[in-house]
């Protein structure tokens, strides 16, 4: 899997975007994005510059280990850092109910919101996951109240069963960001959708 990604997928282009591996030069963009209260509305805290530095190190380490980790999204025309979107193997503070799994996730700078950027990047990575990596399923998770993110999941054809809602590991049960939804997309459904 690693070889496939590193050889064939270190940098790809979609209509408006470059999707690529993490680089040191992304640090300024990460600090701005992870320190922005609009972006971090559904996370338990903003990241300090030091935490963003650690975040970038983790992304790069996970990418080395698995071949991918929420790849970078860049503006094709200007080269600006827009955030991240793509596949990841979860490694959170505790196991998710759907593990082992490959998830898809996104975080973009607010200037880019509402233009279909998340969906454009995610569509590429879903195709890559199902066609190149031959995954059986890709999942996505978010807090119940993150309707923007849920809308992206729905636009990608992912489906949600309320019976699978879960408490995020190691978060107090009475914390407003504890309850999470799980969306799934199977390879069969993806192929059905894309053959239309
Ligand atoms: C979630 C996020 C990546 C979406 O990016 P985006 O590029 O704006 O997404 P898209 O433009 O592709 O689609 C957004 C959809 O959500 C809809 N939307 C926006 N705000 C919404 C809201 N409050 N409630 C419901 N839907 C909403 C938009 O209308 C659009 O759907 P439409 O095309 O049918 O109109 C972006 O908002 C973000 O980075 N948020 C902060 C980080 C975050 O929460 N990440 C997810 C963690 S799980």
TrEMBL record:
Domain N-acetyltransferase: 17-188
Domain of life of the organism encoding this protein: Bacteria
Family annotation (Pfam families): Acetyltransf_3 (PF13302)
TM helices/strands, residue ranges: none
Name by which UniProt lists this protein: Protein N-acetyltransferase, RimJ/RimL family
